[in-house]
């Protein structure tokens, strides 16, 4: 194995280790909060990537994120479920809803699915506001109980410290990334990629294209629900305003900026959007109204100059350097560079 390949192998592990030790050296609640949002954003972005890989743009990811938050909250408050039993159910129930939605939505093509996710966003938002006896209306549900962990007589305090939520969101992000990177290199991942590119040809091989689409959508919504189950007790309140269509559009934009053909692109795009949002906080408050315009300008520039995202741009630069240095580039290397 080449030295550069070894670094690429160990770099993710080094990043994860670094993330685990950050709270030891940095106790700023603001930055811990930003990192928690980043980790949960990566979970949502991975789901957008997986649905995109089978040929659909999903702008309703925050709705399933919110559904997971409401499920874990209602199970703990109304049914008195312990958090660690309600937590997996907060992923299972959004996945079931996604399967039901997929029976109609996944039969549509192109922009029609996107419009349907926008309609679903509006429908569920209306339901959350209108059904006050269950969901609390616009005021939401407050307070959301905190998790409890008792190990060998030692209690982990989720009430007075953000650090346990930091590690919980980090572990969820790492597990989500491991699943999607494993799928990316597996037969299932190759099938998904083929559906997005040559669906009609794949249908003639005997593979159930619709079933594969259902799996991709359900898996994305399962992890989105788990992310919502982390977010709800962390902020201690669940309201419909926390899960908006604009949030979904921002996630899609991040995946597009990072690169839509690889889970690594979803991570890069999410980090990029997180840094951009952090920069927005340092701007004068009068500039808030211009933020959508700035994001729209970024989208236009990406579509014009980086249609395959940051990863694709990196691949083109790498290939150009190889050409200038006289190194021969095989088709396999070009494909690997632009899609990984």
Sum up the structure in keywords:
single chain; 340 residues; mainly alpha; two-stranded antiparallel ribbon; 2% strand; globular; disordered C terminus
Annotate the secondary structure layout.
Layout: H1 3-25, H2 29-53, H3 61-77, H4 83-105, H5 111-130, H6 132-135, E1 149-151, E2 154-156, H7 163-184, H8 187-203, H9 209-235, H10 245-258, H11 263-281, H12 291-305, H13 309-324, H14 331-339
Antiparallel strand pairs: 1-2
Helix pairs in contact: 1-7, 2-7, 2-9, 2-10, 2-11, 3-4, 3-9, 4-9, 7-8, 7-9, 8-9, 10-11, 10-12, 13-14
Condensed summary:
With 340 residues, this protein is mostly helical.
Describe this structure in words.
With 340 residues, the chain is mostly helical. It is built from 14 helices and 2 strands, in the order H-H-H-H-H-H-E-E-H-H-H-H-H-H-H-H. The chain has a two-stranded antiparallel sheet. A hairpin with a 2-residue loop joins strand 1 (149-151) and strand 2 (154-156). Helix 7 (163-184) runs antiparallel to helix 9 (209-235).
Low-confidence stretches: 328-340
Mean of all residue-level pLDDT scores: 86
Structural class: mainly alpha
Distance between the termini: 18 Å
As laid out across the biggest beta sheet, the strand order is 1-2
Count of β-strands = 2
Instruction: Classify the helix fraction into a percent range.
Output: over 70%
Specify the biggest β-sheet: 2 strands, antiparallel
Strand content: under 5%
Gyration radius (Cα, Å) is 21 Å
Q: Helix tally?
A: 14
Question: What is the approximate shape?
Answer: globular
Q: N-to-C SSE series?
A: HHHHHHEEHHHHHHHH
């Amino acid at each position: 194995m080449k030295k550069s390949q070894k670094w690429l192998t160990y770099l993710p592990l080094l990043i994860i280790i670094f993330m685990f030790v950050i709270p030891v050296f940095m106790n700023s609640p603001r930055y811990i909060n930003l990192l928690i949002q980043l980790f949960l954003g990566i979970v949502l972005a991975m789901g957008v990537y997986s649905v995109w890989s089978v040929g659909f743009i999903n702008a309703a990811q925050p709705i399933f994120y919110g559904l997971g938050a409401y499920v874990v909250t209602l199970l703990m408050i109304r049914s008195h479920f312990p958090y660690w039993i309600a937590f997996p159910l907060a992923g299972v129930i959004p996945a079931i809803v996604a399967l039901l939605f997929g029976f109609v939505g996944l039969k549509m093509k192109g922009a029609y699915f996107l419009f349907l996710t926008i309609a679903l966003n509006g429908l569920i938002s209306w339901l959350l506001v209108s059904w006050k006896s269950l969901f609390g209306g616009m005021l939401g549900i407050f307070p959301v109980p905190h998790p409890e962990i008792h190990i060998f007589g030692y209690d982990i305090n989720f009430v007075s410290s953000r650090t346990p939520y930091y590690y919980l969101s980090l572990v969820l992000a790492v597990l989500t990334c491991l699943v999607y990177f494993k799928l990316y290199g597996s037969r299932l991942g190759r099938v998904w990629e083929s559906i997005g590119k040559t669906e009609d040809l794949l249908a003639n091989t005997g593979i159930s294209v619709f079933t594969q689409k259902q799996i991709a959508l359900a898996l994305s919504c399962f992890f989105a629900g788990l992310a919502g189950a982390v977010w709800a007790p962390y902020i201690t309140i669940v309201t419909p305003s926390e899960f908006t269509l604009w949030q979904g559009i921002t996630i899609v934009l991040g995946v597009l900026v990072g690169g839509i053909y690889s889970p690594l692109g979803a991570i890069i795009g999410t980090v990029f959007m997180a840094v951009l949002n952090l920069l927005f906080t340092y701007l004068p408050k009068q500039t808030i109204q211009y933020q959508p315009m700035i994001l729209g300008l970024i989208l236009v520039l990406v579509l014009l100059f980086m249609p395959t995202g940051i990863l694709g741009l990196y691949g083109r630069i790498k290939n150009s350097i190889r050409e200038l240095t006289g190194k021969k580039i095989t088709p396999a290397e070009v494909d690997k560079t632009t899609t990984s």
